[in-house]
Amino acid sequence: MIIESIEIKNVRNFESYDCEFTPGINLIYGKNGKGKTTILESIYSLSMGKSFKNSQRKSMINFEKDSFYIKGKIITDDNVKKTISVACLGDQHRITIDKKAITSILDLIDVFPVVVMAPENINLIDGSSVIRRKFYDRLFSIIDKQYLFSLKEYNKIIRQRKILLFEKNDEMIQLWSDKMAETGVVLWKKRKHFFQQFSKLFSASWSNELNGIETEIKYSPKSVESKNEFLHQLQQVKKQEILKRSNLYGPQKDDYLFLVNKAPARYFASQGEKKLLLTVLKNTECKFIEKYLGKPPVLLLDDLLAKLDNERGLKIMDMLRSNNQAIITSTDRSVMDILNQSWGKINTIHLD
Ligand SMILES: Nc1ncnc2c1ncn2[C@@H]1O[C@H](COP(=O)(O)OP(=O)(O)OP(=O)(O)O)[C@@H](O)[C@H]1O
Ligand SMILES: [Mg+2]
Known about the structure:
Elements: E1 2-11, E2 14-20, E3 24-30, H1 36-48, E4 67-75, E5 81-89, E6 92-97, E7 100-101, H2 105-111, E8 114-117, H3 123-126, H4 129-143, H5 145-167, H6 170-209, E9 215-219, H7 227-244, E10 256-260, E11 263-264, H8 265-268, H9 271-293, E12 298-301, H10 310-320, E13 325-330, H11 334-343, E14 347-351
Parallel strand pairs: 3-13, 3-14, 8-12, 12-13
Antiparallel strand pairs: 1-2, 1-4, 4-5, 5-6, 6-7, 9-10, 10-11
Helix pairs in contact: 4-5, 5-6, 6-7, 6-9, 9-10
Bound molecules: adenosine-5'-triphosphate and magnesium ion (MG).
């Protein structure tokens, strides 16, 4: 599946803009503030219904206007053309596929999955565990509706249980511990299974292209296999939980780690190494979604080359070639010039 073209009206600095894309790698090149990120945001909106920069859809409306409109033409793997549109007028919005309004964002992702990497996503590598949990939770929810259901249920349970811990309501705590244990075990089982698959794809991407640095992604939760074991663990921390008025055991405490040369990337990796890791992670996200949804997502990479030396930049580009379609922004011409020379012409969109 690829995006063939996009039309945007009144989105950020653009009053009216359209461009076309090709399969494989597309480069959007231009100076700061020309609208490179805005084009990626617009494509992303066609998959997620909103921006990746700000969940407030209306923040994308040009300051001088009161509405925006984005239309994208996509071609599915079976060569069917579809048109997706997102219109926003103040707080109201309308999203359509082939002129029919959609009822759930999941319908949109199913038709047009995209994966985005923005510079601020570096916090996936060096930020807190909450950010990594959210990343994997979102990913597993896209490919498994049952995971999304269990996750929502579990979050509801721990919110309720926290109130009960505050009230020291013993009988009710027990009741909700039971629900927590049941759903917690399901979540752990699914997380372990999906992570194992993700990890295999990650290793394949890494070892192929980026020798010289050893890396590993890790997930080792303090998990148990059965509801009874979970309840036993809760019993062990009960006093502390009441004292701290907080849920101290369960999947909400999980972390996923990145190691570079065996040391936690969060503390020890260089800027370029973090960027490398993030790009391979996003590439893996694409392969993972393709494996489960049966469709290769479009990969959007904002400011990909910043902080990467030319040699690494080229290796990364080579890795990205295996994707159906990648759209990359950059302010730096040099890697693109080298690529154009060695690969032949690639689609370049120049913003003046
Ligand atoms: N709601 C808005 N209305 C009008 N202009 C906006 C709005 N939001 C942002 N802008 C401006 O739009 C321009 C394009 O922003 P964008 O982030 O797309 O640039 P960019 O090409 O990605 O730049 P950089 O290379 O610095 O990342 C910027 O000048 C920004 O200040
Ligand atoms: Mg930008």
